[in-house]
């Protein structure tokens, strides 16, 4: 498998935003989660090919607009990313059989916040 790279422009909701949404009515939270999962799936379909070999290692490079949010708060967006990759048909699943490792790095890019996801074949 060749290494594949996905770029998601902007930022995804952080953990505090996700928790706040989940405390509202269940239907509002469902719509909230669906909106971001569908967005990732759409972008993934345009940039990636389905993964046929498992497991894979996935690296997340979080380019944030500033350092106001904690890293663990920001990385909660992985849920939308992995679910979006499954919805798009890129990954078969996000269990231990399909994913061996998840890696995070964090940087600041105030002019171009984004998330760069790199999918590698596991060794």
Give the secondary structure arrangement, pairings included.
Blueprint: E1 4-9, H1 15-22, H2 26-47, E2 56-64, H3 71-74, H4 78-87, E3 99-108, E4 114-121
Parallel strand pairs: 2-3
Antiparallel strand pairs: 1-4, 2-4
How is this structure best described in words?
It is a single chain. The chain is of the alpha+beta class. The protein has helices spanning 15-22, 26-47, 71-74, 78-87, and strands spanning 4-9, 56-64, 99-108, 114-121. It has a single domain, classed as 2-Layer Sandwich (60s Ribosomal Protein L30, Chain: A), CATH 3.30.1330.70. The protein has a four-stranded mixed sheet with strand order 1-4-2-3, with helices on one face. It is globular and about 40 Å long. The model has no long low-confidence stretch (mean pLDDT 94).
What structural class do you assign from the helix and strand content? alpha+beta
Order of helices and strands: EHHEHHEE
Shape: globular
Based on the structure given, which CATH architecture is correct?
A: 2-Layer Sandwich
Catalogue the unreliable spans: none
- Please give the domain count: 1
CATH top level?
Answer: Alpha Beta
Strand order of the largest sheet: 1-4-2-3
Sheet having the most strands = 4 strands, mixed
Share of helical residues: 25-40%
Output the keywords.
123 residues, alpha+beta, 60s Ribosomal Protein L30, Chain: A, 4-stranded mixed sheet, 4 helices, globular
